[in-house]
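User: Structure please.
Assistant: Input sequence and predicted structure:
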Amino acid sequence: MKSKKLILAWVFSLLTVMAFTVPSDAGTGDLQVYSEQGFEIYIDDVLAGTTNGFDRGLFVEGLESGSHTLRAEKAGFEPVLKKFNITGYRSWVITIDPDEVRQTGDREESTLPAGAFGLRSAPMGAAVYIDGVYKGQTDLLVEGVRTGNRKVRFERDGSVVEGEFSVTQEETLKLKAHFREMTIINISTLEQEGMGREAEDAAFNEAVRAGSGNDVDAAVIAWSRFVEKYPGGVHAQDAKGRLALWEERKEKNLFFFEGEWIAADAAADRLEEHKEDWIQLDIGISLDDLAVAYVTPGSPAGKAGIVAGDMILEVDKKRMKKVSDVQKSLKKGKKEKSRLILLKRSSRTVFVEVVY
């Protein structure tokens, strides 16, 4: 009996010690919010950050145990409220489903002009502040940013890179903080410059083709339009030089015939003498690369299927190196009443037969 009492006393003592040594729920815990980007997350009315792509929402550490209230806000949408309970040293997950997000309708803030920031950094994981307000860590998209100049600051491991950038309505301004160079790269500007260069290159090539034949009026129009649209572009000096050349030819009323430019009045007799040779074909050919600049509709060349942009490689199986070669072959072919022309069209070659 006495031994049973000793055992019970020992068990009671052990339980008492365990009661004082088992960890309580008084520690801190974490919260993982899953949602689309751009939501400002408030916990107990204190801003915890903005949902971003890196976190697939927002990850919040060190929340005290107990009940909390989460409020998710985004410009143009009704706030989303959720209650949750943190138990020490454990994580809690909250998902904001798309069907929980409702637009505010005619609320004043939804009509305010706004844009967005697409923010990146190298290395990743930089804290981002817009006008002094913490928005989350890179990479992230911050939407609903009021238009105008905005101060953007990136912080990472004690280093700070900042600058002021202008946001326009419905624009996503892409920025990348480069901590090795300690600079902010405006990716949007670089992309626009790249697209502008591509557009200028395309316009330049079009002007080259339009201005490479014998039609002086068409050439002047093509180059004047290019210079007007891209006065300071990378091709500007070349374009101005070509325009000046064609304007001079137009002013002097020059006409291209048999490999040279001569005055139209002086060439009248020669044109009359050889006009059949040209009427038979009726195309304009570039001096530089023997590319066809234009074809008169209904002419033998047009009926044969020759189009502007074709490059003349051979006539009657003879390699053509300059315009005079084409002219000589044209006169020779007149006797046979037809000629076989090899053309380069885009990335392929084709044969056409021109019949007089």
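The longest helix spans residues 187-210.
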